[in-house]
Design goal:
- The chain is an alpha+beta fold.
- It has two domains: 183 residues, Bira Bifunctional Protein, Domain 2 (BirA Bifunctional Protein, domain 2, 2-Layer Sandwich); 43 residues, SH3 type barrels (Roll), CATH 2.30.30.100.
- It starts with a strand and ends with a strand.
Length: 238
Amino acid sequence: MTNYTIHNFDEIDSTMNYAKQLAENGCENFTVVTAKIQKNGRGRLERKWFSEQGGLYFTVVLKPKIAMDKAFVYNFAASLAIAATLKQLFKIDAKLKWPNDVHISGKKICGILSEIKIDKDKIDYFNIGIGLNVNNQNFSSEINSVSVKQLTEKRESAIKILKTFLINFEKKTDPKRFDKIISEWKQNNITIGGFVKVKTVNKTIEGAAIDIDRSGALVIVTDNFTVKKVICGDCFHD
C-alpha cells in the first residue's frame, strides 16, 4: 500500500480547498486531507455540503499519469471503494447512484465531488472529495440520508473506515483494472433501468436510463425516443 501523507484537521473551511492548495504547491500523489467539521463544504454544482461533527470528510489528491478521457474512472472507483468498505467492515449492502453517490435502500450515505486541473493537455492533478455519514445523525432537509451509526446502532471508527477505504481505492485504481471499473459499477448501481431526471447547468433531461458508456456518460432515452448522453449533472430517480 502507498505511504499516504495525511493532513488532519478538527475544523476547516473545505478539504477540497486545502487539497487544491497542496496540489498547486506540488504535493505528492495520494496526499489526503481530512476534517471532523467543514465550515464550507461543497457538493456538486457548488452546493453547500452539510458537514457536521460525526461525519468523515476527506479529499485525496491524485497525480495520475493517464489520458484525460480516463480520469472519470477515479470517480467510479471511489464510489466502488466506499461500497466495498461498507460491505467489508459492516456487511452493509451499498448501491451506487450515477454519477457518484452511494445509497443504502434509497437513502444517501455518501457523496463524492471531483476537481481536475489540466496543464498542456495533461492532468496536473485530480482531486476527489468524499463526505461519508458515519456517526452524524442530522442531515440536510433536502436529502433523504442515513449514517453508518443508524445502520449498525453503535458508534463506528471513522479512522478505521478511512484506512480501509484507502486500501480498497488503491486496489481499484490500479491501471490494470481500469477496463473492469465500468462493468463493476454497473453491477452495483441503482440508476440503469429506471426513469431519471438529470439537471445540468443549462438544461434538464428526462427519460429512461439505459446504460453507462465508455466515457462514464449516462445514456438516456427520452419520451420521443431520442438518445441523450450526459457527462455530469444532478440525477433524480423517479
